[in-house]
């Protein structure tokens, strides 16, 4: 029994000696690597690293940039009448050169509310990125109008969101004018 206990301790001691030897070798390698660079080069590298992660913009620059973006957004809402109230995005599939995302948007255009659901397929070649919209579904408040139903079904079929938002903006603006005019005569 004493022999077996001694053997266990000797094995453990031998294992620890090997580990110390490996760690010593790694330490010596790192010491040699660090001697390749001068103190000035190391300090310059540290300063460069700090500049890269600190960025060049101060908080006041960021605040001014944010205010500019808010002003631009306010202008676009007034100009188009389109205001998004919610957006949900989930990634369905992601590979090295292909991403499929599902989007759900809700918003208002003047006094009309709308909801969109679609999948966006982005494919990347060596030089460019192409995007294709599929499975477009549009729900609009004024769905009882047959012209709007035709327009929505055509847009869903072709997946042309730019055409949809341009037409929605014009239609909603005139829809609001008609609504106010009919209220005036009531």
* Overall geometric form: elongated
Low-confidence stretches: none
- The count of DSSP E runs of length 2 or more, i.e. the number of strands, is 4
What's the helix-strand series?
Answer: HHHEEEEHH
Oligomer status: single chain
Please state how the strands of the largest beta sheet are arranged side by side.
Answer: 1-2-3-4
Structure description:
With 186 residues, the protein is an alpha+beta fold. It has a domain of 104 residues. The chain contains 5 helices and 4 strands; from the N terminus they run αααββββαα. Strands 1-2-3-4 form a 4-stranded antiparallel β-sheet. Strand 2 and strand 3 form a beta hairpin. It starts with a helix and ends with a helix. The model has no long low-confidence stretch (mean pLDDT 81). One of its GO terms (biological process) is CENP-A containing chromatin assembly. InterPro entries: CENP-P. Keywords: Coiled coil. It comes from Podargus strigoides. This is CENPP protein.
Q: Summarize this, please?
A:
This protein is of the alpha+beta class and 186 residues long. It has a domain at 82-185.
What's the layout of helices and strands?
Layout: H1 2-35, H2 39-54, H3 59-80, E1 82-94, E2 98-109, E3 112-124, E4 129-140, H4 146-158, H5 161-185
Antiparallel strand pairs: 1-2, 2-3, 3-4
Key features?
186 residues; elongated; four-stranded antiparallel beta sheet; single chain; alpha+beta
């Amino acid at each position: 029994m004493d022999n077996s206990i001694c053997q266990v301790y000797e094995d453990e001691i031998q294992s620890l000696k090997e580990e110390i030897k490996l760690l010593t070798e790694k330490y010596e390698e790192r010491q040699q690597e660090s001697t390749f660079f001068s103190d000035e080069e190391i300090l310059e590298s540290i300063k460069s690293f700090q500049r890269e992660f600190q960025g060049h913009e101060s908080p006041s620059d960021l605040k001014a940039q944010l205010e500019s973006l808010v002003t631009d957004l306010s202008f676009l809402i007034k100009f188009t009448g389109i205001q998004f109230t919610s957006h949900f995005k989930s990634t369905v599939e992601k590979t090295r050169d292909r991403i499929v995302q599902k989007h759900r948007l809700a918003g208002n255009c003047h006094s009309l509310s709308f909801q969109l659901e679609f999948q966006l397929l982005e494919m990347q070649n060596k030089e460019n990125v192409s995007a294709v919209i599929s499975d477009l579904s549009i729900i609009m408040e004024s769905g009882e109008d047959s012209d709007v139903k035709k327009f929505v079904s055509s847009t869903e079929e072709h997946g042309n969101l730019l055409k949809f938002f341009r037409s929605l903006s014009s239609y909603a603006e005139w829809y609001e004018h008609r609504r106010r005019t009919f209220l005036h005569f009531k």
